[in-house]
Amino acid sequence: MPLVTQEIYLHIGIKKTGTSAIQFFLSTNRQRLLNYHNIVYPELEKDRHAHHGLALPYVSAHKRKGSPPKIFFRDLISYFEKYPKKTFLLSSEAFASSEDIQKLKDNLEALNIFPKIIVYLRRQDYWLESRYNQDIKSGDKKNFTDFCSEQQVDWFRLLQKWEQVFGRENLIIKVYENQQMPQGLIADFLQILGITEIDGFEVPSAKRNISLDLDLLELKRLANMMNYSIELSVLNKINEKLQCFSQNRYLFSLEERQKIIKKYADSNSQVAKKYLGRKKLFYEDALKSENQYKHYSGLVLEKVVVIFLLIMQKQSSQKQSSQKQSQKQSSQKQSSQKQYQQQIQEQQRKVKRYKKKLRRSRRLSMVFAGLFLLQSLIILYLLL
């Protein structure tokens, strides 16, 4: 049984609150966190950036449902034994989707893990738009209306589930909103760990999981419905071009957005009062003008043609690049084979030359032996 560590944090997401950016930062700075701040961010099996292998078995819809593979616990125990006096941090947004939180706690307590739970919350309308974008990129086929009707975004209810199992005193609630993260997401997260200075850390400049332009997103959804695959790398390259001249548009109309905010106003107020000791959970003004919330009205034929041509161009370019790479590898292989054959031929020529020299040497040896014998006979004759 591993020793109880000083502190253990379990970052559970939720999804679409910068979890990928946080995890990439933590894995990139794993050694600095250990050396300068005594914080261990374990690298378990294949989950290099995060710890999804520990979380997914508790998600009923996932194929890994059950208990986490023993290899994860074995690796985790080895970390505890190696760093018995350190602070530990585990992270996976899949934890927030756990449907058997009690089983999760029981399995953690079996390892003497009694964590503090870190959870970030995002305003429901923004969260739904961002999550829908991600799901379509991942191959989902639902339209936005159907998607929204299936989502559970009552944050107070979510926190209540975790509180009932882990206790109020072990929940750390943060808000994913620019006004409440003045120094940025990474600095805000580090403050939870007691780190107030970000200097010296390697902070990735590029954003993670950038949302697709809404026209491109709708075209991707239609492609998903036809089971037509568009590589993510192609989508991202096209998205970069479209973002240059695309205006900020939203899937919710202003009226729909206000309905969503009103629907969860009481729930959000309860979260703010109970967990943060204030009246408002989100500070951003929810009643912006129609000009600020430009509603996406759908695909137009001209945009479909433009995007389709860009997709064809990028996929053709990638195919040509792949063919060139294949030809290059084939050429290198042929060149390597040719060099190998030349080396073999050279070795064979050396063997022939050696054999020829050996035969010549043998003939000379026989001549010298004959001369020596003749000389010996002559000397013997003279002596007699």
Describe this structure in words.
- The chain has a domain at 8-208 and 271-280: Rossmann fold (3-Layer(aba) Sandwich), CATH 3.40.50.
- It is 56% helix and 6% strand.
- It is mainly alpha-helical.
The coarse overall form would be elongated
Tell how many strands the DSSP assignment holds.
5
Q: Can you write the helix and strand succession as a string?
A: EHHEHHEHEHHHEHHHHHH
Name the helicity range: 55-70%
CATH class of the domain at 8-208 and 271-280: Alpha Beta
Structural class: mainly alpha
**CATH fold call of the domain at 8-208 and 271-280:** Rossmann fold
Rounded to the nearest angstrom, the distance between the terminal CA atoms is 102 Å
Nearest-angstrom radius of gyration? 34 Å
Q: How much strand content do the residues show? A: 5-15%
Specify the number of helices.
Answer: 14
Q: Biggest sheet, in brief?
A: 5 strands, parallel
Uncertain residue ranges: none
Instruction: Tell me which oligomeric state these chains represent.
Output: single chain
User: Mean of residue pLDDT?
Assistant: 85
Sheet with the most strands: spatial strand order: 2-3-1-4-5
CATH architecture of the domain at 8-208 and 271-280: 3-Layer(aba) Sandwich
